Amino acid sequence: MTDLEKALSHISDNIKKYRESDPNDGNGLVEILQQISSTLFYLEKERAKYHEDFQRRINEGVLSGESVARSENKAHLEVPEMYLLRRVMDSAYKVGDAIRTQISWIKSGLINSV
Asked: Which residue of 14, 63, 71, 98 sits 20 to 30 Å from the alpha carbon of 91, by its own alpha carbon?
């Protein structure tokens, strides 16, 4: 298993842990958010590498006489990690937003109950 596959698996595992977590367990939510956020940081670096390769392939196609659209379609086939990372990371960022909202809700409840 590559480092990229491990990171994607780690994101999935933590999102599953979030889905199964107690909605009032603030400490557990903070831990899950920490894992998701730090893994997203790593994945951003990976996405930058794949994006560079993706753009290089488009440029090579255009320079060899292909249309931009054709070159882009070929690049999507040759660098499928770009689409995968885009979709997984966008979703993971939204889960992180949901966790932050939930933590704020818990915090608000604690402050208002005093």
From this structure: 71
